[in-house]
Structures are given as structure tokens and as C-alpha cells.
Amino acid sequence: MAVEEHPSVIQTLRGMSRPVWLLLIGTLINRLGSFLQVYLVLYLTDRGFSTASTGFALGAFGVGTVVGVIIGGSVSDRLGYRHTIVGSMLVAGVLTVVLPHLTNIAAVVGVVGAVGLTSQAYRPAASALLIDLTPPERHIMVFAAYRLAYNVGTVAGPLLGALLITYSYEAMFYCNAIALVAFGLLAFSLPKHSEVAHASPSGDSEEVADARESPETAGRPASYLAVLTDTRFIVFNIAMILGGMVYIQSISTLALQVTAAGHAPGFYAALLSINAFVITCLELPITRFVQRMTDRATVALGNILVGAGMMLYLAGPSAAVLVVATLVWTAGEMVGTPTITAYPGRIAPPRLRGRYIALSEFATQVGYAAGPALGVALWAVWPAGVWWLCGALTVLAVFGSSVSMPGAADRNRQPLDS
Which PANTHER family has this protein been placed in (predicted)? Predict the structure, then answer.
């Protein structure tokens, strides 16, 4: 039976294989139970640990999540996607159960960092499996569905955590562990690395995709050094750092903008709620049309809309302006992010797919880490300058993604020689 070139939402959902559904359901369960970071500070202060110690633990978790993605990319390429997901989830579950029984702050910091690492190591493997298990013409729609599962769980998880801590913090940790282990057990049903029919973005076999590697990439052992020889992909990731720095102002400097305009903190929460609600309801339907565009055009348009939304905050302090600006950058997030998420796996040589995905996620996290620090520092001396800076960074991000991504309608791309 022929596959629709631009499938609808219903066609995409009906056409997803059982392993893809398992990945989406597992991700939803995992995110529903992932509220440790949200309530870690409250838990540790309730246990009597100092504010400084709590900060070290929270920092350890953050560092662990970044390192975990990098390690997960390498492990998934070496051991296989299923083994990586199963191992990371089960180990994270065990460590989460241990955490509430620790009394020494050094042990707490170490275990919290290890939980951050192991709980995020699955992500490159999950994205790589989605690429391998999905026809190329459905990649963008499937990644939009993956984002839906991830975002719904991320939004609902803290609410569930709030209910659990009214009973006890231990209950929160145990439920978090159950969610991690549940995903790990579901992952046992996923195909092994060797059972997946690898496909290049053009639908070719793994052998043909390997033949399209650049001489420098193909001639190196599978490692991150091999990924770094793909010059265009490195430029793409630099663009993602810049785009991430712009987007992250929505959960950092925007709060200062809202309160400086005379609005209550609750209004800022309302803006973020509007963003979450619109994405949950509209991202999949919008992706139905966005998938007709080239990857390059989609990412460029998404970045432009995000940057334009941020710059609209210069238009005035009224509630209406703030809502419209938020809707504009929300539209950019819906347009660009599914493609940005799928793109690294789509263009990666199969033997390096996990590492390509991990490096791209790392680049985004670098942008998310640098953006708030730069934005808040600039706000302190020139509030309007933050939004002008967003405009300048957007121009650079659009330029970087446009020169590094293909424009052909069939979305094919070979890694370039350095």
C-alpha cells in the first residue's frame, strides 16, 4: 500500500507501528513521573539541608542531564537503542528509590547527579528509534506526536507531584521510580538495534546511507570526533545555540518584563499556560501543513517567528501586547521545533545517529544555559536591549541554519567534507 506523501494527523497516528506507540506511551509515563527536579529544593530544605547544599544538588542534577545525553548518544550507537533505554530507565529508577534514604549531603549530591545522568541518557536512543521505525515522509509528524507526549507529561507531572508531597516526599520518590521502571519494562518490547531496518532520509538502505558519508566521517571510528568532521552539522548546531538563547528568554527575562510592566506574577504564569495550551492543541494540526516545506524553510520560519515574538515585547506594556507577542513566538515553536528535533537523526549516518542527536540536544542545552545569564545581565543595564539582542541573535540563527541545511524539496542531504 502506498504511503501518503504528506499524511494527516489521523493517518500518522493510524500508521504508527507498535514500537513507536510504545515509545510515545513510555515517554508520557516517564514525564508524568519526572518531578524530582521540580521539588528537589523543597525536599532537601525540608530535610534540614542548607541552601548552599541544595544548590549544589540542583546543579549536579542539571550537569547530570547534559552529560547523560552525551553519554547516551555514544552508548546507543555502541550497544543499541533498546539496551540504552532499558538500562538508563532501570538504573535511574533504582537510584531514585535510594535517594530519600540518604542522610549525607555528599551522597545526596552524587546520587542526584547520577539520577539526572541516567534519566536523560535514553533520549538520543528514543529519537534514533523513531527515525528508524518511521517512513521518512512521516518523520516530522511523528516527532510532533513525540513532543506532544513529552510536553503533556512535563506539564501534568508537577501537578501529580504536588498531590503526592501532600502525603509524603517518599511517595513522590517512589512514584517517580515506578514511572522510570515502567518505561524501562515497556522498552523490553522494542526491537533490537540489529532488528531495525535503518533508512536514510531518502528511504535508502543502511548500506547506501553509509556510502554517502563524507570520506573524513567514514574513515574515522564511530566517535564524537567523527561527528565533528561534518562541518555543516556543526554550523547547524551553532545556529541551535543561538536560537535556544532567544527562546529561553520566555522562562527567564520575560518574567522581569511582565512584572516591570506592572502586571502580577500570576499574569506571567498565565502567559506560559497559554503557550502550553496552544502547543498541546495545535502543534500536530499545524505540523500537518508544515511538513510540506523543506527542513531549511521550516527551521528558518520557526526561528523568525520566535525572534519576532520576543521583539514584540518592545511594543508596549499592555496585557494585549504581551499576549500577542507570546502567541507569535509560540507559533514559531510549533512550526520549527518538530523539524529541529527530527533533523539530526534524519541526516546522520546510521552508525553515528545517536551521537548526532545527542550533540544537537547538547547544543540546545548550551543555549538554554547561556541565554538566561546573558538576558538577565543585559536587563539590569538596558531592559529593552534584551529584545533587540533577541532580534540580532535570530538573524544569525536563521543565517546559520539556512547555510547548513539543504533546500531541496526531497529533504535529502549528504554530510559534507570538512
Answer: MULTIDRUG RESISTANCE PROTEIN MDTH (PTHR23517:SF2), RESISTANCE PROTEIN MDTM, PUTATIVE-RELATED-RELATED (PTHR23517)
Give residues with Cβ within 8 angstroms of 212, minimum separation 6. Answer: 200, 349, 414, 415
CA terminus-to-terminus distance, the chain: 41
Give long-range contacts, CB 8 A cutoff, 24+ apart: 7-14: 7/137, 7/138, 7/141, 7/288, 8/288, 9/141, 9/284, 9/285, 9/288, 12/138, 12/141, 12/142, 12/145, 13/145
What ranges do the domains of the chain cover? 18-195, 214-404
Q: What is the pTM of this model?
A: 0.91
* pLDDT over threshold 90, residue 188: yes
CATH number of 214-404: 1.20.1250.20
Which of 258, 265, 249, 269 is closest to 378 using CA atoms?
249
Helix (H, G, I), strand (E, B) or coil at 11: helix
Domain 18-195 and domain 214-404 have a common topology: yes
- At 218 the pLDDT is 57
Cβ-based neighbour number of residue 260 at 10 Å: 11
Q: What is the pLDDT of residues 108-144, one digit of tens each?
A: 999 999 999 999 999 999 999 999 999 999 999 999 9
Nearest to 244 by CA among 361, 152, 150, 72: 361
Torsion sign (Cα): 107, 110, 112, 115: negative
Distant-in-sequence contacts of 272-276, Cβ < 8 A, 24+ apart: 274/323, 274/326, 274/327, 274/330, 275/250, 275/326, 275/330, 275/333, 276/151, 276/155
Reported for 162-168, long-range contacts at CB under 8 A and 24+ positions apart, including other chains, are 162/39, 164/35, 165/39, 165/42, 165/43
CA gap 62, 40 in Å, rounded:
12
292-310: pLDDT as tens digits: 999 999 999 999 999 999 9
Q: Which of 139, 124, 282, 116 is nearest to 202 (CA)?
A: 139
pLDDT in tens, 191-230: 976 455 444 443 443 433 443 455 555 556 778 999 999 9
